[in-house]
Amino acid sequence: MITRFGLLLLPGASSFNLLTAYRPVDSWSLKESLSERGSTSLDSSVAIDDEAQSASHAPSLLPQKRTRLPRPQRKALERARKANRGEGNPVNQKRDPKRSGLGDMEAAEGEIRLRSSGSVAVLNQESTFSDVLAAIKKSQNNQDNHDLNAVFRFLVELTDSTFADGKKGSLLSRLAVAALHLKNHRIAAGAINYRQSHFRDCLLPMESAALVRNLLRTNNVTEACNILETELSWQSTMMDAAIAASRTTTSSERSCCDLLKYRPEALSYIASWHFFEGQPRAAIHACRKLASMGEAVRAAGISGSSLGLPLSRLLQGAAKCQSLIRTEASTTVSLEDDALSEQQSQDEELARIRIPCNVVYSVLDVMMSLPSENDDRVYELLSNALVRRVVFITGAVNMDGCPPPDRGEAAFIGRSNVGKSSLVNMITNRKSLAYISKRPGKTQQFNFFAVNDKAGKEQEVKYGDIVDGEKDADSFYIVDLPGFGFAKVPDKQRQEWASFMKDYIATRTTLRVVFHLVDSRHGPTEEDLSIMNQVGENLPAYAKYVIVLTKADKNVKGARQNYTGKVSKDVMEKLRRAMAETSNLHVPVVVTSAETKLGRDEMWSYLRCAAAS
Fold first, then answer.
1. What tens digit of pLDDT does each residue of 132-145 get?
2. Could you give the count of Cα atoms lying within 13 Å of 311 in the half-sphere of its Cβ?
3. Are 483 and 418 contacting, i.e. CB atoms less than 8 angstroms apart?
4. CB-based burial of residue 589 (10 Å sphere; 0-12 exposed, 13-18 middle, 19+ buried)?
5. In angstroms, rounded to a whole number, what is the distance separating the alpha carbons of residues 181 and 286?
6. How far is CA 389 from its chain centroid?
7. What is the dihedral of CA 325, 330, 334, 335, to 10 degrees?
8. Other CB atoms within 10 A of residue 382 CB
């Protein structure tokens, strides 16, 4: 039968046998079990009650089964056996350094004992660079400020400049970074000051840039700027030495070339920090310093991938700063002045900086000056920060149908099927802003698109609602002009377009830039020569004229990211002759492709003229 204790009771078994088989373990049976297991001592945690000691130690007449000990008793036996095996062998004995107090004591003269248990327990003169580096990483991962302080004492007090093959300065840099991660500013400041005073001649630009980045993470912007000016200083006279260093493998000469890599990186960190903190003037000042190094970086042959600027973070910070400027337009300047440090507020150069219509344009200047990758994500951030809203306003067929001239305008002119609509969609990062058609001449009026107008402008245009608000400071019009050439329209309408375009170019006071689109596969045609003459004769001096070569990807088989398009020499020569005939030799030329996004940064550098007016 099954009892209520879950035991199987066989027929004929008496209750006496059942009870004696499962009686509590007394002191005798416990000692017998210990002796059978070979144990010579019993841990003090195993208690024997007084009643069990006074009981009889005689064995029962019935055969006894070996009873499994409770888990606490088994663990006590296991500890006792380990203690017996470890006698006389201190290596196998694990001490708790927190209890013994030896974590911060010098084990011997010239040694430092670490508290954390790991591969490196003691630092001495025989320790290598890897040993100290492992101790620093272990302290950082364990968030152990005690061991971090022990490593600092070891490097400063117990070693000389020749320790670790002269790489003591690098260890101090790594120690300072670990201390900043743990927000231990005392150790970080001590390590930085010591390395600057004792290893100034052998500081590595890579380590200095890492210190700048981590100092900014803890909001130590003043110290970060000091390291930038002392350890990563740059002068224009150093360009020749940097270019020569880029062609050598000597470590001492390569440091000058490394400066061209890591100073821009540190400047980008400083600029993004100021953007996120809502300090546009300081951020623009850093961006200008960054853009000024573009000539030297390109001359040294440093590619965008090896430079590795955090452009995404720069653009995100600039977009956030511009959003703050828009929402707090009346108090932004006072808030910025309060946020700036006393040293920065006294800087006359910083005070003279004029905040542009959109601070993202300062990042665009950096992207134009320094080599950067053709990254779609970066351009998406750029275009979304510069084009937040875009809405079709009206289509005009004469000057009376144009909207009021209350902002700058950028006009796109070209023959039919040259790719105007595709280029406009690429620039604004929209898929169907301008209608793309396979039939030439689809655009048959002057289409005005408002960029960055007030949020409710679309409701006003579509439904006639009155919406409060003002357009943004960087608002402008994109004007898509009808295509000339083989558009299937009557000659009378073609003449009306030409007359309208002449009046628009000559009399529209808010026109700031005219993009003349030419097919890069064929070069300028007779219609293009006519446009060049008309624009050259009628465009006012305050407006820019830019020739844009489109569809450059069609000249390359399998255009890809690192080879996005080209223009043949014959087409370029044909274009130069046309520019010379029409007195437009000094007009800038931009090569573009709506498919591979080639030339998008250059296009925005000229669109800025319309946004800033």
1. 999 999 999 999 99
2. 27
3. yes
4. middle
5. 25
6. 25
7. -40
8. 26
* Token digits of residue 70: 């409770």
Contact 33, 65 (CB under 8 A): no
DSSP structural state of residue 450:
E
In whole angstroms, give the CA distance from residue 113 to residue 103: 6
Of the CA atoms within 13 Å of residue 115, those in its CB half-sphere come to 19
Percent of the chain with pLDDT over 70: 75
User: Beta partners for 550?
Assistant: 519
Cβ proximity of 214 and 273 under 8 Å: no
Instruction: Name which of 552, 606, 612, 561 is nearest 368 in CA terms.
Output: 606
Task: Measure the N-to-C terminal CA separation of the chain; round to a whole number of Å.
Answer: 100
* Strand extents, DSSP E, 66-221: 112-113, 122-123
Contact (CB, 8 A) for 484 and 527: yes
pLDDT single digits (tens) 482-524: 876 545 667 777 788 788 889 999 999 999 999 999 999 999 9
DSSP 3-state of 428: helix
Q: Which of 483, 605, 590 is nearest to 546 (CA)?
A: 590
Token pair 């108090």 is found at 331
pLDDT at 7 over 80: no
**Element (DSSP H or E) covering residue 292:** helix 280-292
Q: What HEC string does 217-241 produce?
A: HCCCHHHHHHHHHHHCCCCHHHHHH
Both tokens of 171, joined, read 């260890």
For residue 560, give the DSSP letter.
Answer: B
**DSSP 8-state class, residue 123:** E
Closest CA to 318 of 486, 446, 474: 474
* CA-based nearest residue to 413, from 542, 500, 541: 500
SS3 content of the chain, % helix, strand, coil (to 5): 50, 10, 40
Q: Specify the DSSP element, H or E, that contains 392.
A: strand 390-396
* The pLDDT of residue 89 is above 50: no
CB 208 within 8 A of CB 262: yes
Least confident of 107-121, 237-251, 332-346, 375-389: 332-346
- In terms of Cβ atoms closer than 10 Å to its own Cβ (0-12, 13-18, 19+), residue 509 is exposed
Q: What is the CA radius of gyration of the chain?
A: 39
Mean pLDDT of 366-393: 89
Q: In this structure, which amino acid lies at residue 246?
A: S
Secondary structure (3-state) at 250: coil
Note whether 308 and 317 are within 8 A (CB). no
Angle at 574 between CA 568 and CA 578, to 5 degrees: 145
Whether the full predicted model's pTM is greater than 0.85, yes or no, is: no
Contacts for 323 with CB less than 8 Å, ≥ 6 apart: none
Look at residues 406, 402, 427, 397 and name the one whose alpha carbon lies nearest to residue 550. 427
Q: Which helix (H) or strand (E) holds 364?
A: helix 360-369
Residue 226 phi, psi (nearest 5): -65, -45
What Å distances lie between residue 571 and 420, 525, 552, 559, CA to CA? 19, 11, 11, 19
> What is the H or E stretch that residue 99 is in?
helix 97-100
CA distances from 256 to 211, 246, 262, 429 (A): 18, 8, 10, 40
Can you read off the two tokens belonging to residue 278? 């809502």
User: Cα–Cα distances in Å, from 374 out to 371, 563, 597, 598, 605?
Assistant: 10, 10, 8, 8, 16
